[in-house]
Amino acid sequence: MAAGKSSSGAGRRLAAVSVGVALLLLAELALRLAGFGGPGHRPDPFAGFSTTEPLFVPAMLADGREVLRTRQDKIGPFNAQEFPRIKAPGTVRLFCLGGSSSFGFPYDHRLSFCAGTARGLQILHPEMNHEVINCGGMSYGSRRVLNVMRELTAYDPDGFIVYMGHNEYVERRFYAPFLSEPSWRRRLRTGLNRIRIYVALRRLLDPLRSQSPARIADTDSFGTGPLRDDSHRQARDSREDALVQEQFHFNLAEMSALARASDVPLFLVLPATNLRDWHPEGTAWDDRLSAPARDHRDAAVAAARRLQTAGDPAGALARVEEVLALDPMPAAVHFLHGQLLLELGQPGAVEALREARDRDTVPIRITGPLLEILRAAPGSGDAPALDAGEALAAISPHGIVGSEMVLDYCHPSPQGHRQIASLLLPAIAAALWPGEPPLQVTPAQLLPPGGEGADALSSAFGAAWAGQMLVRQGRLEGAAALFRRALALDPDLPTAHEGLGRVLAAQGRSTEAISVLEEATRLAPGLANGWNNLGQAYRAAGRLEDALAAYRRALSAGVGTGVIRRNMAATLLKLGRLQEALQEATRSTRASPGDALGWAQLGEIEAALGHSELAREAYGKALSLDPSVPGAPRASGTP
């Protein structure tokens, strides 16, 4: 009898499991029939590190022609592109790969060197059809570029154009958790991603999860430039450099092998960087110096800044050279060295500015060693790589690339893109049509139809981005003109309102700034920069409670929390609410331990509370991060 009951219970459990499995299968079938979660709709778990999710998917046009089209969920990180699945006779098909510089950011593909190259090829051979497909991915480094190239070999290419190298450290730092995962776990993720029910559950749970590293990296370039939060800033070391260089070398070798296997040329381009006008993002100082040497260095840094401001570049240069003799590490001091040499017309400016780039502890520009790896890599028929930096420097003031050719740190201006296209054209013509006499195509001939602005509505965003970059360089008048140009093109662009409001606030025009920033936050209630800068404008106008409310709205966006809490602490200090100010300043340094201003703010509050020893410790930390930080007493100083 007991055996019968046991058998009956097992049968019921088996039936329940069978019903459950059947319901899951029916749900999976229903989702498949509805087209939910298939290719082009499901999220890529590795944002390009997996080769199982293609960039292009087949689509049928109304006239029955079959094309390959950028997958819907990839539009944004990639340009929307489309080309015939079967290449027509008389067609040259080139694929353009790389990161956001290849993409054409902050514009779109129409102003990129890829589009300029297509226009140039049409001038050279108007009887042919030229497809130059832009496959540049936002924040893509060589590891993911290689995966894109693997897919593209199946689409009958006639050549590959590769312009990359700025994202090697960015990719490694953002994706470290994914890259260190065991291979079995990555395979499991990839397999689950093919199950529609799993995709549906991920969609439902996404709002409850914190933003993944993959999503941050694929979208961070579309903002106004996030709040300057130092929490991610870390000192580079020789081990990281070696790993990045080894991976870059390997990925380039794989790309060369793919091109050879496809029997098509590979056109490698050494990317250009803004050396002259872009201050390093992060600076490390040698903490092994003795106390007297550190005091001497810090005093010399402060003196150099004062002398530069006072219009004495020769005096400032002498003090900078004292600093570098004691401590050759700080990227910011090498940058100042290069600027002073340039101002005085002395030799060595290019070398100093390159040193500043290569010592930047937040390496968002290609470094000298990576450029050398590219230079030595085999391209088309072992031809040397093309040097975009050298080509742009040749037509730049002082022979050093600045903001005229590279808008910010690495993204070419429209003029820079056309120069890169005209650098590529002779190499492409020589590879595809050997023996033909070379024809000269000028950059002016590569303008898009209707000119830069008329061809790209993205010019509004591009102007706003360029304005944001000028603000970061302290060039307020030029930035204001760009923001106004952006608003003339798109009056509802939040980032342009936010940028213009920030400039007005910096110029002391608080009332105007508040009006413009309130419009920015109305248009984009989730814009952290807008709320933070509105708080700053309120504070400057004496509206301290309104400032605190704006900072709290900024915090809800979840980015730049260290900077926002530092601003809250300063406001609470001004209100005399010292304990609350201390709480926010402490949270600020926890969120952004590399922010020297945050530690100086904490020191000021500790001093106001009479905590002399704690204040001294906070000021010491600020000075160790940046010896020129304002507000911190110098070497001997007591609070």
Commentary on this structure:
- By secondary structure, this protein is α/β, with parallel strands linked by helices.
- It folds into four domains: 272 residues, Rossmann fold, CATH 3.40.50.1110; 69 residues, Tetratricopeptide repeat domain (Serine Threonine Protein Phosphatase 5, Tetratricopeptide repeat, Alpha Horseshoe); 102 residues, Alpha Horseshoe (Serine Threonine Protein Phosphatase 5, Tetratricopeptide repeat); 73 residues, Serine Threonine Protein Phosphatase 5, Tetratricopeptide repeat (Alpha Horseshoe).
- Helices cover 55% and strands 6% of the residues.
- The strands form two sheets. It has a five-stranded parallel beta sheet, with helices on both faces. A three-stranded antiparallel beta sheet has the order 1-2-3, with no helix packed on it.
- A hairpin with a 5-residue loop joins strand 1 and strand 2.
- Helix 20 runs antiparallel to helix 21.
- The longest helix has 32 residues.
- The C terminus is likely disordered.
